[in-house]
Amino acid sequence: DVKVTQSSRYLVKRTGEKVFLECVQDMDHENMFWYRQDPGLGLRLIYFSYDVKMKEKGDIPEGYSVSREKKERFSLILESASTNQTSMYLCASSIPRTSGSWSTDTQYFGPGTRLTVL
Amino acid sequence: AQSVTQLDSQVPVFEEAPVELRCNYSSSVSVYLFWYVQYPNQGLQLLLKYLSGSTLVKGINGFEAEFNKSQTSFHLRKPSVHISDTAEYFCAVSASGGYNKLIFGAGTRLAVHP
């Protein structure tokens, strides 16, 4: 079974703090993703990574950065947390590319981190 | 660019009744289509996906979906729901070929009542 774990289920931080959200997957997946989930908006992609030390911006990267120093670990960093970053954050990974495309890949999700910024 | 519209934000239904969750997409290119489910306090998991071939796709837990290219729809159906099907369901689309991200709909909350 694929396992994607996230470091915290619930997190409360103050405005201006630097926040680290950690994600680890145990299936040697090349691709990893960070989404935020908000009611009525579904999931929106923040950043993704297709290899160690590689990263690409998603649809809403402003106010976030990422780090992928090891294949199994993908970190999301809020440089200076703001109240509008209060949300559920979901990490996902997908199976290794074999056919020159990842559009068909199933994504495996972690349980999420509910972040509240006060 | 692709987009996804889930036409119902909430669907209440009685146990053992049939259900249909509606999903429409827009795209100028060929697409792949997915349904994911999120049970309470859990991450998302794949229910089913359409890549090519038969337009009727069967997934886990008795769900199926039909790809209708002319109506740009990918509705999810189950003939008889259980209490345990209570969850949020997300339709998603990606452009075919290459390295394309998933675009998710806003979600439909299915509430199954005894």
Structural description of this entry:
The complex is a heterodimer of chains A (about 120) and B (about 110). Chain A is mostly beta strands and about 120 residues long. Chain A contains no helices and 11 strands. Chain A has strands spanning about 5, 10-15, 20-25, 30-40, 40-50, 55, 65-70, 75-80, 85-95, 105-110, 115. In chain A, strands 2, 4, 5, 6, 9, 10 and 11 form a 7-stranded mixed sheet that branches. Chain A has a 4-stranded antiparallel sheet with strand order 1-3-8-7, with no helix packed on it. In chain A, strand 7 and strand 8 (about 75-80) form a beta hairpin. Chain A is globular and about 40 Å long. The N and C termini of chain A lie far apart (about 35 Å). Chain B is mainly β and about 110 residues long. In chain B, about 0% of the residues lie in helices and about 55% in strands. Chain B has strands at about 5, 10-15, 20, 25, 30-40, 45-50, 55-60, 65-70, 75-80, 85-95, 105, 110-114. In chain B, the strands form 3 sheets. In chain B, strands 2, 5, 6, 10, 11 and 12 form a 6-stranded mixed sheet that branches. The chains are: A mainly beta (about 120), B mainly beta (about 110). The interface of A and B includes residues 41, 100 and 103 of A.
